């Protein structure tokens, strides 16, 4: 009796334990399945509009707005139409966007990288004052910003039209200038500089290096990951922004792609598929950059909020 | 004759932190080094003042003037505010702006839910995180156009609503009763991935230990969420709802692309009114006054957010 009881107990315990484990595993599997289901539905909601626009842009004819999983036909007709359209020169818009992004990103990153250096690694009167003033500026409400910046742009003479080449330079400047002083960028770079060992800078200073040399030879290489991340974020921001350019630019031929796309949707109202093709072309570079630089977006975003 | 400022540290050892604060042991404040520091910051500060600081002050001043760019601003006191108070268009815009705040709790709750989902250690979860973030990196110009097409009468949105038995016939964007909510959905769709990433970071900062301890103590999953996860997320919730509220009150781009304030003024917001006064009517003083009212409302709702999340303190 006694012997049996002693023998019996471990088996029942292990049996119920195994039972519990199996039940837990089953429950987990069911929970995971439910999670995948919900995740899948949300993914469809997030991605289908892009997919639908893409396949519709490939169709030569048919019921344009219909919900569909596959295109009714495939041709590049709409792409040819949008790229050769005469009302808004699409190639010109792409060129505008490239110029605006190149100028915007390089200036934004350079100015933030320069300004962050003394704030992180130099000692001078007014340092804390400037730092906190910029912090306050970040939270001050600026609802009239767009309006006053428009007035400023006019007063600077950037929207004058005299000669074609000068006009283009001035209007590109008008698009880019308001966005160049990036407070987020300043904070990101200051944070990156703070991590650079002070001994390195001291050693260079003792060796008689100029501050600009220290910045270029020590700070920039060591902050490179942050600079790359910030550049990618800024490229996407410049590529995507359209409101400012569309509101104030007098010459439609100088608009960036995303602003020109709206212009296009007005002129191409007879063929929305051509506008869809334009939308696909506009999104494509961003998707490629996002696919390759995904981690930078997530990191940059967290950094920006922690500021 | 090289200075050797490094020697001072050997005599008086400073903490590394203090050294950092001083900008390095070798940095002595001289007129020259101060000038160099300001030279580094000059281009940035010049543009910052011109395009960020100046608008705050000049915009506030303009609100009390009549201004059309051509002639100098003419001081009119509170007249612009009186004009706004008497303009029913401004009031209905304000009402729509306030209605738009409805999107904030929805987007935050959904973003927390999605963050909890993508925080699970599932195979292929990276794909879902990426997928949800794609709308965030897409321009509102493109997003607005895509959804304008999606919302067409015979488009996919109505097809889905029809399949669910909710079909109303026309396009949601053409119906004054639904247009604002249809635009809100686009805001939600585009913004959810952004907040998801922030909440994900918040969740990962909480750490597993606390939650596991609660589970060992016999707490149910829901209790753990309510008593451990949610309080731990409170700082993130504050930041996110602040961002979300301010951008809801200032919603513009999606409306500009999709409805232009219509149909029948149903998506006409206060900021739309303000920009129309400036860029259509060239009444910059009146527009600036509208901007100030929107700013004041933003601040009030920001404070409300602080109260609701108890200042975002994690341990409350």
Automatic annotation (TrEMBL), chain A:
Which superkingdom is the protein from?
Bacteria
Give the UniProt record's GO annotations in the biological process aspect.
transmembrane transport
Give me the segments passing through the membrane. Answer: 33-51, 93-117, 129-151, 171-189, 218-239, 274-292
Q: Which CDD domains does the protein's record reference?
A: TM_PBP2
Q: Which UniProt keywords apply?
A: Cell membrane, Membrane, Transmembrane, Transmembrane helix, Transport
Gene Ontology cellular component annotations, sorted alphabetically: plasma membrane
Q: Where in the cell is it found?
A: Cell membrane
Stated name of the protein: Binding-protein-dependent transport system inner membrane protein
Q: What's the family?
A: Belongs to the binding-protein-dependent transport system permease family.
Pinpoint the ABC transmembrane type-1 domain residues. Answer: 94-293
Q: Which SUPFAM superfamilies match?
A: MetI-like (SSF161098)
Lineage summary? Bacteria, Thermotogati, Deinococcota, Deinococci, Deinococcales
Main localization is membrane
* Annotated membrane topology: Multi-pass membrane protein
